[in-house]
Amino acid sequence: MQDLRHVCGLPVWLEDDQYTLGFGEGLLAPTPDVRRLEDLRPVLYNQTISEPEEIYYMYRSVSQRQERDALAARGLRFDLTVLPNRMLGQEFMKTAGHYHPRLPGSDLTYPELYQVLAGRAHFLLQKARGDGGILTDVVIVEADAGDYLLVPPGYGHITINPCDETLVLANWVDASFASLYQTMVKYRGGAFYEVKDNGQAVFVENERYQECPTPRMVKPGLPQIEGLKGDAIYQLSRDALGFLSDPAAYHQCLSKVLAEQDM
Ligand SMILES: [Fe+2]
């Protein structure tokens, strides 16, 4: 088993089967939601594949038992996601991809904060206008264990596991909204598919989008918000996570996250 306690801040580990999480004493350990091939098929590069049957595993609302009510009162949710290194035909393992809705009475959509706990991730972020077919920004962030990634307001996102290890992710997010999957389904995925071609990982543009800018490579990192610091995502200050439910108050910091990190 692979201990994730130090990077996560909770007694959590990856079992030897490489897809099940173990939870230590005092944790509320949910049964994972399994994303299956039939769920992902509409957004895959190869839509006719017949395996794997199970794609990835989402453990929603993980917490220390004694903190459950306090997190609910703050409207925060902590999730863990496991993406094993299973290929989806030529395509690397990925999440279905979604956008977030706008906050009530606001033009801003909810942000989300990730940390890679194990493995390596490619986060694909994209901003769209109109009905979603015109992309105005596409960003790829490569992140290793310990790295943080903010999905700022306005961006949809997909996470790809581009390597031969299991990828384990943690995220904090406002608990009140449901993600929006329809646009990614309509365009059969995000702006790019990451596929293996002659043994090499390459990004293949999804030509169903009417416009797609050249993707920008951006470094991972935490937004510059007072009090938001720490190596383990579960240990981050709950006050400093308030931006997840009130992004308007932090709009300047959040909008800088992707703009200032060009490599
Ligand atoms: Fe999300």
Keywords:
single chain; 263 residues; mainly beta; Jelly Rolls; six-stranded antiparallel beta sheet; four-stranded mixed beta sheet; 17 strands; 11% helix; globular; binds fe (ii) ion
Topology:
Elements: E1 2-3, H1 5-8, E2 12-14, E3 21-23, E4 27-28, E5 33-36, H2 37-40, E6 54-59, E7 63-64, H3 68-74, E8 76-83, E9 112-118, E10 120-129, E11 134-144, E12 148-151, E13 156-160, E14 167-174, H4 182-186, E15 192-197, E16 200-205, E17 216-218, H5 251-259
Parallel strand pairs: 11-17
Antiparallel strand pairs: 1-2, 2-3, 4-7, 5-6, 6-8, 8-14, 9-12, 9-14, 10-11, 10-13, 15-16
Descriptive overview:
The protein is mostly beta strands and 263 residues long. The chain has a single domain, classed as Jelly Rolls (Sandwich). The chain is 11% helix and 34% strand. The chain is built from 5 helices and 17 strands. The strands form 5 sheets. Strands 5-6-8-14-9-12 form a 6-stranded antiparallel beta sheet. The longest helix is centred in the last third of the chain and has 9 residues, at 251-259. The mean pLDDT is 96. The structure holds fe (ii) ion. Fe (ii) ion binds at residues 98, 100, 112, 151, 157, 179. Fe (ii) ion (FE2) binds next to loops.
